[in-house]
Amino acid sequence: MTRASKVVSFRPLNPTRFTRIFHGKLTRIQGLNIMPIxxxxxxxxxxxxxxxxxxxxxxxxxxxxxxxxxxxDRGNIQQLLEASMQVPVLLCCWAPSSEPSKQQVPVLEKxxxxxxxxxxxxxxxxxxxPDIAGQLGVQSVPDVKLVSQGGLVDQLQGAQPEQQVREWxxxxxxxxxxxxxxxxxxxxxxxxxxxSATARRIYEELVQQWPDHTAYQVELARALVAxxxxxxxxxxxxxxxxxxxxxxxxxxxRASIEFGEQALSAEEIAALGDRDDSDAxxxxxxxxxxxxxxxxxxxxxxxxxxSDRAYGDDAARKTLLRVFDALGAxxxxxxxYRRKLFALLY
Length: 346
Prior knowledge:
By secondary structure, the chain is α/β, with parallel strands linked by helices. It has 16 helices and 5 strands. The protein has 3 domains: 18-170, Glutaredoxin; 183-261, Tetratricopeptide repeat domain (Serine Threonine Protein Phosphatase 5, Tetratricopeptide repeat), CATH 1.25.40.10; 263-345, Serine Threonine Protein Phosphatase 5, Tetratricopeptide repeat. It holds the Pfam family TPR_19.
């Protein structure tokens, strides 16, 4: 059973009441059959914007989909906004004709279930309710608005993969216990464990599902390098938009390809045995960098500099600088090992 998450904090972007977005046109809906909205934590109907003390007890079980995932229209939008006085609401504006919307809604539904009543998901079909969408200022879908205490807290625009939505929610809600690993986490764990084939398969699926999310293409390239396909990885990187191609993650993968071309193979490294001369230590460090073991590789390069500063026409220092460039100036390893390099030189 997934325990309901707790709201960590809310930082309203605008103190103006969220309902004022409607310019008074929908804040008082009269003569409509407004369906009651249930507090997912208690199973009791939520009372309008008044007594927050009535609905604070935790639920005794996992709420049903009907309690936490609601189709929104003109008949219940007012009640949903009033419910946000007691339970945070994710209002997802979407359209069945929009492919990005059809990608986003299942992700939101999954995460709503995982959080077990920490918030309500309201789904507003803008094709059926264009007047409400217009009053909300929705210009494109999907458009997700986080509402609490009648106020707009934050919004997420455009289709986002599960990992990004999870991180966004994590700013406001504690992660639910027992949450499943995301595909990104599974792929990263597989790559770290040396299972490049599994990582490659997962990233290929993510690229197919989210073709505009270039970060997945970069990670697929990384998995291809680990899987012994550096040329495919290079082609994938070259096809990226220029700004993504020149960003630190892509540079890091390209550096891995280049280091891999320069380094000895794993079999050749093994054949070095217990050799402890500068050449052997440099080649081991280069192999580690090529395999993405950056910290071990950086430490090895520093060790070469300490014992043999002039080795290979200053090869260790030059390689360190290339690794720093590949990782990016703000990467923790770059920051830490720049300091170590400075201390060694001066």
